[in-house]
Amino acid sequence: MPAQNPQFSQISQFPQNPSLDRAHDKGTEAGESRIPPILRGKTYLDPLYDPAFRAFFSDEAALKDFLDALLRLPPGRRIERLSFTFADPVEFRIPGPKTVVFDIHAFTEDGRFLDIEMQRAKHSFLVDRMLLYSAFLAIKGKQAMESSPESLSLE
């Protein structure tokens, strides 16, 4: 896998959105801005939005280092390989149609699997949401297994 994803190499592909800048510049308390003074009035990519998140982390080595540091993974348990699933939405009916996009799948040196999501909204019932995503992953794995050449040869 190449180190740099060419799809995200041009930052100019992201249009400016003044309404997002104003929304983020409102601050958390009266008179307090969430944007550091050095960035105010500048054009920047907010990593809370998918296009910027993808642009920042399109370099696989940098993303591995970032995630290892963020998750404080010790040697022997660090991220070994990544799988990007930006373009692979999974659709389920629960009871109505629901589309889930898993952002990054990571596999660690000790064989663990991590589903890494970028969330910009606070969710009530976070544990329920995590259980639902786990169920989606299990169903997706079962579907992949059933369509594998090994499984099809058993029929």
TrEMBL record:
Biased composition (Polar residues): 1-19
Classification lineage: Bacteria, Pseudomonadati, Fibrobacterota, Fibrobacteria, Fibrobacterales
Protein name: PD-(D/E)XK nuclease family transposase
Domain of life: Bacteria
Pfam families: PDDEXK_2
Region entry Disordered, spans: 1-34
Ranges of biased composition (kind: Basic and acidic residues): 21-32
Source organism: Fibrobacter intestinalis
